[in-house]
Design a protein that fits this description.
159 residues, alpha/beta, six-stranded mixed beta sheet, 5 helices, 29% helix, 20% strand, globular, CobE/GbiG_C_sf, Cobalamin biosynthesis protein
């Protein structure tokens, strides 16, 4: 897993079942924040925020996601990913059910990596809601990728 850095853009990948609720997503985000701020490289007092929420395209209008996103105190980009973009994404979690359906072991982990772009790194395996209806994973973008715009950033050496 990647070392935590507060200077790199943070992408949250989400897996949602039909029964997921906004409070499930908030609880997962709180678990992620609690974990982040305990990491030795995280600046004291800095509150984590995400730049992008990455989900399967057919879940982009999920009521829980829309309600939770509206409650966030910062703006986020919603990235709706086709299932084919997650297939084959190497992730630490290996759900047989998800491998059969989407070609990846974790929708949340694969979505976070896809949303963070080429060279992205997963910070740790996903968090799972108590009832299993929602999952959240965090990835950081490579320094050469702007996950807000989805564009590669030219290095000074390339100019």
């Amino acid at each position: 897993m990647a070392a935590v850095s507060a200077t790199q853009p943070l992408v949250a990948g989400l897996g949602l079942r039909a029964t997921a609720r906004a409070d499930h997503l908030q609880a997962l985000w709180q678990q992620a924040c609690d974990w982040l701020v305990q990491q030795p490289d995280w600046p004291a007092g800095q509150v984590p925020t995400v730049t992008t929420l990455a989900v399967l395209a057919h879940k982009a209008d999920h009521p829980a996601l829309q309600a939770w996103r509206a409650q966030l105190p910062w703006a986020t980009r919603l990235l709706a990913l086709p299932p084919a973009q997650l297939a084959g994404q190497p992730v630490p979690t290996q759900s047989v059910r998800l491998l059969a359906r989407y070609g990846t072991g974790s929708v949340a982990e694969a979505a976070a990596l896809a949303g963070a772009g080429p060279g992205a790194r997963l910070w740790r395996p996903r968090w799972v809601a108590a009832d299993g209806c929602a999952t959240l994973a965090l990835a950081c973008a490579a320094p050469s990728f702007d996950c807000v715009s989805g564009e590669a950033i030219a290095s000074p050496l390339e100019e």
